[in-house]
Amino acid sequence: MLIFAIVISGCGKQANSASNKSGGYENGSITIPAKNGSICGAPNYIAYEKGFFKKNGLKASLVAKPTNISDLEAGFTSGKYDALNGDFQYLPAIQNGAQIQAAGGIHQGCVQVLVPKDSPIKSVKDLKGKTIATPGQGSTPQFVASIALQNSGIDPKSDVTWKTYDSDLLAKSAEKGQVDAIGTVDPYSYQAIKEKHFRIIVDNNNHSGSNKMEKMGMKKNASCCYLYLSDKLTKQNPKKAKAIQKAYQEAAAWIDEHPKETASILLKKNYVSSSKFVNEENVSNLIASYHFGLKKSQGKSDVKFYAEQLKKAGFLKEDTDINKLVEQAYYDD
Taking Cα atoms as reference points, which of 140, 223, 131, 133 lies closest to residue 170? Predict the structure, then answer.
């Protein structure tokens, strides 16, 4: 009995020593490229601010999110980044070797295609031959617009002209007549609608099940944003990958139950810049409309849906095997 007690005591000291060395974070440190001013990045901020990372043994650092997707890819390949709250825009990058996997749909749409209030454009079909501005080539707004175009019989590669502007200049470019329509994300989209009275042509948040939007490739209740994890974690450190997944699952559930408090945190901590219309009430309403919650199996079916749409729109290779791509792109824990 005495020997047994000594062994147990020794093991206890060893465990405590290991815990102290890691600072109490049993799953170690993670770095997340999170800061980009978007409302849909809320799970990053809430997991950090409300302690869900810490609860799951993770010491998290939130850093600026590169605007160039190739910089993000390089960050994941090198091990600089571990997780990302991002859109389905990463599917072509994954096909081309990006070292990330989607690990669950995290919220519904936050992307719209808009036109100025006095524009003669009434529908997507009116965009043929027109110029559309987005935050970047290969951005989710360009993909959403392209999906709507190809489902309306318009070739997104040859029947429209694309231009790129910084997110905060998109609405101005349309008002000045430099472009005919813009594709953008909240809060920029919301601000353009409320402040400048822009009209929505496409909305990829189809929670209501609009037949009009569904015909344009906007799937009902589909996840627009996903949790992405580094391949190095999903394949080499599944324990840590699952801890990150759990932290985001808990954060997303908390957001869905507390949209007003979430909005307050995002604005007060300057994760989202406030303005006359980007205020606590409006941000709270937007957050509620996103229906946050980590969806694993549905997330996988949504990834497959968007992969099919992107293939049709010409953003994936013509010979893409969709099922094979989804298995490559999705983390089944």
Answer: 133
